[in-house]
Amino acid sequence: MKKLKDTIMRISPFVRPYRIAFMGAMVFIVISTSLTAISPKIEGLIITSLTKDIIGVGTGTKGAFVNFEYILRVLVVLACIYLITTITTYLASVLLTNSIQNTMKALRNALQEKIKKLPISYFDKNSYGDVLSRITNDIETISNSLQQSFSQVINSILTLTLALGMMFTINIKLALLALLIIPLSYLVSKFIVSKSQKLFHKQQKALGEMNGKVQEIYTGFNEIKLYGKQEDAIKDFQNINEELFNTGFKAQFISSIMSPLVSLISYLSVAVIGVLGAVYVISGIITVGNLQALIRYIWQINQPLSQVTQLSASIQAAFAALERVFEILNEEEEVPDKVDSTKLEKPSGNVTFEHVRFGYNDDRILIEDLSAEIKSGQMVAIVGPTGAGKTTLINLLMRFYDIKGGAIKIDGVDTRDMKREDLRSLFGMVLQDTWLYNGTIHENIEYGRFGASTEEIIEAAKIANVDHFIKTLPDGYNMFLNEEASNISQGEKQLLTIARAIISDPAILILDEATSSVDTRLELLLQKAMRNIMKGRTSFVIAHRLSTIRNADLILVIDEGNIIEQGNHNELMKKGGFYENLYNSQFGKQEVI
What we know:
alpha/beta; ABC transporter transmembrane region fold; Rossmann fold; 2 domains; 4-stranded antiparallel β-sheet; disordered C terminus; transmembrane; AAA+_ATPase; ATP-binding; transmembrane helix
């Protein structure tokens, strides 16, 4: 219960800017509900008049005529009440819809802003599919539930209160008897909610896991087909789908029991009050019209209780979704940039690692004491076995992760003293895993530097040896790439990412196995182009194929997070150490042959 209260308190800031619309909706709901509560007693006046005039109930004599003038006046009053009720209900719905949708918009914006501030480590620990599910499915669940349930819940509470109040004006004893419906219904509801809420949370979690699995399967669709793992993928999906089915079925089934149980309590109350009310009518304590009004009020009490219980599944799903959304909003953000940050106006690209210490977890340090000095314009190759920490070094350089100790400096300025945006603008990156977005080839290259002219984009494409290929395409630079950029080859995608890096004109280049997806002939052309664009720029090259880095000015050999050797190719080969063994493991046999 405390968790639900905390969740409600967390969403209140998102509602506050639209409180006027909410308050206006509440006013109209109060008016509508109050008029609805009054109408049964006014309707009872007609029944009382008819029974008194026609059969003399409550008077002891048989009536001789019907007072049509009185009944007509009552009907006119009822017509006015019903008309005002309809208008106020409509106005309440419009205002509530507007405020709820604006609140959801604000919540989506808050999520978007939060995601921009989350550290990379968050996305390492959580699947993209689950994060996407929280932003889309969970927000939509909250929106639908608020839209369908909020006004009905408020209406139900007011209806319940007013109906009970009107019953007390008719007969206190019968009203007290009807009042028992509420605590009995509450106890039943509380018991069922305590069982079903946990299941609804599991249901939303299972939905997130299923979205994550679907995203994973479709991202690796070709690999799954290649290795004949379709059955395994289907089985994994079916297991998650079965879990979602089981939790969803249990949650919906248990919550659906609530409505018939509450209705049963109301039916028993109607039977008891109907019998006692009939006795009171015969005794002349209440009129027939008031008995009819009492029965109507019992149904007015039952209706909101039934509505709330029927909506309980939607409400509980919404609370579970809210908890998942606020789990993201509660996540610890990246360390904020310093207010008095430094910006390099004319970076030259000198990079220094000073006794760097880092670990993804505090209890598992990967890099103990790493030091290196890279001068402007040098080509630096980073080599080492898988898992040695090569990519980690680049992540630290770009401050995707913050180091635990020591310092990383660019032109003598600690990267932690720079804004992340300014720091990362110094780099151009070409990764092994290419990323292009749905748009034209021209737009994808321009992504490296918005506002670049067509001539500059073509020149960048020529340097990357991709201009000729682009011109052979149906629409040339205006050809649209689809969502996965699958309408061009992997090698061609790599060339476009290289052109994008060239157009950004960075001070420092990072090439992570940048030529791994092209054929040997194209690799030679690319290496020549890379040598041209690396002139005057500091370049970090991560390569598993050591043939690509023989001409590097400096080679950093990393093992278990630390630089164990450094120097150029010839120097390291003469040492006869780790690098020589690594190099000979790739080329030793060929040289013997």
